[in-house]
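FIELD: query
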Amino acid sequence: MSPSDAPATARSPKLPRATPRWRTWSAGFAQALVFIGLLGVLIPNSLQAQEIEPRRWSHLPTGVMFAGVGYRYGTGDITFDPTLEIEEAEFDQQDGVLSSVYSFAWWGKSMRIEALLPYGYSKWQGLLQGAPASTTREGMRDATFRLSMNLTGAPALSGREFGAWQAANPVRTSTGIGLQVSAPTGEYLEERLLNLGNNRWAIRPQAGILHTHNDWQFELTGTLAFYTDNDEFLVTRTQATDPLLFVQAHAIRTFRPGLWASLSWGGTWGQENQIDGIDRNDERGENFYAVSVGLPINRQQGVKLAWIGSRTHKASGFDSDNIVLAWSMMFDP
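FIELD: result
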């Protein structure tokens, strides 16, 4: 115990008492934990729900189903406000994902429904006021479902009609709308700041356009995400989140059926959080970059390999690098 921490004796003069150092430290520590907790919510969300995904508006024959499994490994650095005294913050995460896609016709329009069921492992580590700190989580992440419709340029066709229409229209433009929903199915410990699940619903209306010119495709998707409140943030606190705008663009080259490659970019704006009505001033701003390659195994099976990177353009945020490997199989009538 240092002299300044020693209790006063009966003979000591009575002086005005300064704020105990432990209270100052604990206040900063609590603020830092809340900020870490918010990034713990944002990091899985950015890599899962805001994924860079080319060919989501591709014209599919109706009555076709795809099922697949995927693996993703991601690592990155987290940059905090310097006043929080958090340094060398890093995260690692791994995900296994089950996915399915089914295409069908409704009112003469081609549609598809998709589902993603992820299971994940995450580790956060860094220095808090110079002392090492880390934690891990393993369990289910939030499940994601998506329903989309091609409005123009992609008629509902199957079998030979589908192949003949595509061959007759090598240059075409299609538009579509979609609705993606993330359900609060992920593991969530209300007394913990870092979790795999977000304990809230996320609703994401989408609109997209796809232009095909022979072997090239150019795709643009805009998503506006809305979030319900998490009223179990740190057990009794309420987390509210502003909407997030996410835009992604892709240039895709098809070399032969099943063999393709793409270059992608995405950007996010918004998603500022409020805790019990108090703004956190943590608006997101990231650029995403991706390179993807699709390789056929046979007529019904294929694999996809992708690198996805994110870079923040805000004073605080995170940078990440991710490798994705996925296998899918097609079932047709």
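FIELD: remark
The first helix runs from residue 21 to 48.
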